[in-house]
Amino acid sequence: MNRLFHVPLSPFCRKVRLSLAEKRIEVELVEERYWEKDADFLRRNPAAKVPVLKMDGKMMAESSAICEYLEEKYPEPSLMPRDPDGRYEVRRLVAWFDDKFHNEVTSKLLYERVNKKVMGTGYPDSANVKAGAKAIKYHLDYMHWLLDHRRWLAGDVMTLADFAAAAHLSSLDYISDVDWNRSEVVKDWYATIKSRPAFRAILADQIPGFPPPAHYADLDF
Ligand SMILES: N[C@@H](CCC(=O)N[C@@H](CS)C(=O)NCC(=O)O)C(=O)O
């Protein structure tokens, strides 16, 4: 059986969960409290990060490497365009969300508000929360601009870029940190992606001590 070592609100883990579910690859989810640096976990991934996917007798780390592996091994349904320009744009946007958005927004809001409490490492730093709340506006505006020109974030078809973005936004939506009223096109994009069967397990996540808001799992918000 395939196994994904993960934490439920990790955007990197969610991106892999979405890819697996879209491709209908069954996987057993195993929660990994990576901050406890358990010896077995360090053996699975010396980088001490989640996600880690155990598949085909291998332990795999790094969410984008995993998603591209899945894409090459299970090409249908496709989450990458075939042409080099299209593939470039998907990779650029995956990096945008997993690097820039993660550093400017996810780490400033989710990690401050949730991770610190779960890991017992103190209280949210209000300057970070303020910076994250400011930065997400710019990112939503950038997504609005992209989606004004394109059906999906990287072009005409849904790709890993949409899953990367939806993974971050869904984790932030779990703690009500996304102002969906800022852009109707971004809200419509999220409503469409959220309605996919691949999203169901993510919408069912429950973190002890952090109940999600009612709209989180509501397909019509
Ligand atoms: N580049 C990695 C990032 C993974 C990552 O940073 N995961 C976080 C959880 S959201 C983690 O395990 N952090 C532990 C650490 O940085 O020590 C990927 O895409 O898989």
UniProtKB/TrEMBL annotation:
Keywords: Transferase. It holds the Pfam family GST_N_3. Residues 1-78 form the GST N-terminal domain. InterPro entries: Glutathione-S-Trfase_C-like, Glutathione-S-Trfase_C_sf, Glutathione_S-Trfase, Glutathione_S-Trfase_N, GST_C, Thioredoxin-like_sf. GO terms for molecular function: glutathione transferase activity. Residues 83-215 form the GST C-terminal domain. GO terms for biological process: glutathione metabolic process. Homodimer. This is Glutathione S-transferase. It comes from Shimia aestuarii.
